[in-house]
Design a protein that fits this description.
The chain has 184 residues and is mainly α. The protein has one domain. Helix content is 88%, strand content 0%. The protein contains 5 helices and no strands. α1 packs antiparallel against α3, α3 packs antiparallel against α4 and α4 packs antiparallel against α5.
């Protein structure tokens, strides 16, 4: 179990570093779009002028996000099915009190579903952005870009919540084990 925890921790650290890299790329996109004095005409001009660069960055961002999403999705799914569900079932079959573990597992499962749905919405919004003609309609493009940023923020919230629940599960599991050891 200790080796599995270390491996999961290393994987989560790797995923977190990938997310940081993606955020840096997103920041570059933000700088490209908002590097002006805030006037609507300057923003439109900046978007129109840099349209091909923006679209190229969006393509790269979408590709990077998809890779991270796959890794995170697999890790979270494994965490749910191979660790949480399996541990809860094992504790139940051995008639060991599982404390709050089942409740944390249910909450994790719900948040994993939110993560999946929010990623689909976000990815679709990025697809829509990539199909838009930002040279001809920079205002609409910028409006849709802001919506994509909001969706990305929701994904970050899901990511943070899932990791918080992993920590909660780990703490509760330690409590269950320590309580079990004291009763012997």
């Amino acid at each position: 179990m200790n080796s599995a925890n270390r491996k999961t921790s290393q994987t989560l650290q790797t995923v977190f570093l990938l997310l940081i890299a993606i955020v840096v790329v997103a920041c570059l996109l933000v700088v490209q779009v908002s590097a002006n004095d805030g006037t609507s005409d300057k923003r439109k001009e900046s978007i129109s002028y840099g349209c091909s660069t923006i679209k190229l960055r969006l393509k790269q961002l979408q590709s990077d996000d998809a890779s991270v999403r796959v890794v995170l999705g697999q890790n979270y799914e494994n965490m749910l099915t191979k660790l949480m569900d399996a541990m809860n079932n094992r504790l139940a079959s051995n008639r060991v009190s599982s404390g709050e573990l089942p409740g944390i597992t249910v909450e994790f499962s719900k948040n994993l579903e939110y993560f999946r749905k929010n990623y689909i919405s976000y990815d679709q919004k990025i697809d829509d952005l990539r199909k838009m003609n930002c040279e001809k309609d920079p205002s609409q493009f910028y409006e849709q870009l802001e919506k994509a940023r909001k969706l990305r923020g929701e994904l970050r919230f899901n990511y943070d919540k899932l990791n918080e629940l992993i920590g909660d599960y780990s703490s509760e599991l330690n409590s269950v084990w320590s309580g079990r050891g004291e009763s012997k």
